[in-house]
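Complex record, two chains
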Amino acid sequence: MRNKYSVFSLIKNALSYHENWQRAWKDPTPKKEYDAVIVGGGGHGLATAYYLAKKHNMNNIAVVEKGWIGGGNTGRNTTIIRSNYLWDASAGLYDHALKIWEGLSQELNYNVMFSQRGVMNLAHNLQDVRDLKRRTHANRLNGIDAVYLSTEEVKKFCPIINTSPDIRYPVLGGTLQRRAGTARHDAVAWGYARGADAMGVDIIQNCEVKGIKRNGDSVEGIETTKGFIKTKKVGVVAAGHSSVIANMAGLRLPLESKPLQALVSEPVKPIIDTVVMSNAVHAYVSQSDKGELVIGAGTDDYVSYTQKGSHQIVEGTLNAILELYPIFSRMRMLRQWGGIVDICPDASPILSKTSIKGLYFNCGWGTGGFKATPGSGDLFAHTIANDEPHKLNAAFNLNRFVSGDLVDEHGAAAVAH
Amino acid sequence: MFLINCPYCGERDQQEFKAGGEAHIERPKQPTELSDDEWAEYLFMRKNIKGVQFERWNHAHGCRKWFNMVRDTSNDEIKAIYKMGEKPPA
């Protein structure tokens, strides 16, 4: 039985110097057979397992992770959550996730530190202004909160922004989604892992998938570094390594895996109480609860699995940050890292069945998957349990690349991908 | 970030170059005969290999010529560079 976290458990454990907290999840050895196996123990994979157990009564399932849970892109992103996407299909998908975020800490009994501090997107030229206004209207038609801000309103909302008309990319306006914000990325993985584990899900770490066994057109199981696991349903949520797993099953995906970088500064006192993103100059900044500025840069243009990225990408982002926020000019950067993001040609994800029965893919989230974690898990669990997509992820099928019915969020979303 | 030995200009910083994606994807000879599946395969599906991959690169801020590269995507090590039209190394 899982102990509930509360102020009373905190006091009780404080009395024993926090040395007797219950393990948040077990460390099981894999069984011979499961009803379903999720490949990838990041936020999306763990959320999928959680909702499979919770909403679809599939408790005899496992999550296999080649490293440790939340050690991939879940622990590497800039934690931004928003749902201000242009197209109806995307708006439905991302706002479904945002609605779950709003009650997630209570649901999981785990503080994911979801903070609705607002996300502001800046416009730097006339086309940006037109695009952002159009997106604001589209968001409102889909029931998503959005307002368009003038330059003065941008300055009022975030006073440290340089709104001088003389800068290289002057701020001509912006949009604001107040329900958007940030969350603690590790806590999302840990919270879902703890919740899934409590319902009987086996979370198997340091277990790399080496092959997918097929019998004709159906899945029979997976070969792993901890032996063969028999299962009829495999849900792959492997982010940057999705193509690697797909190749094992003889599938090709419309993905390219590229390094995306982020960096944080030394911790400072509160200076920016929202998230500001700029598409044109490709700079995002927010401040973590520790006080570090969290800065997101862009992707490199070549395929790489190195989790590094090029120096000039970071340099370009920091140039933009300095022009927009001169106050940061003497800030020192503490850490820089890269994650491998799997990008679809239309910059929208794939949550889909495949031509192989029992093999499902949840991938292609590209540079912006963290925000969708709860919704992605919920809808992917539905897809796996029913062998049919939910209406909210029906448009995100693999077949759209054959039919041509793409969800083109390249440039249509609030950021460039 | 790495150095690339352009077959026309010599060794230059990678930031002078533009990656052009997977190499040796042949343009369909009979586009009107292609099924939707074949179009999807040609336009969108990629090998996206972790390991040795054949790629096209363009010296965008240099001679602006295209060439091919064999690169290990797991460590960014360049194995070979050869001109367009030349046979890929085995």
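Note: Chain B touches chain A at residues 1, 14-15, 18-19, 21, 36-37, 39-41, 43-50, 53, 55, 57, 71, 73-76 (CB under 8 Å).
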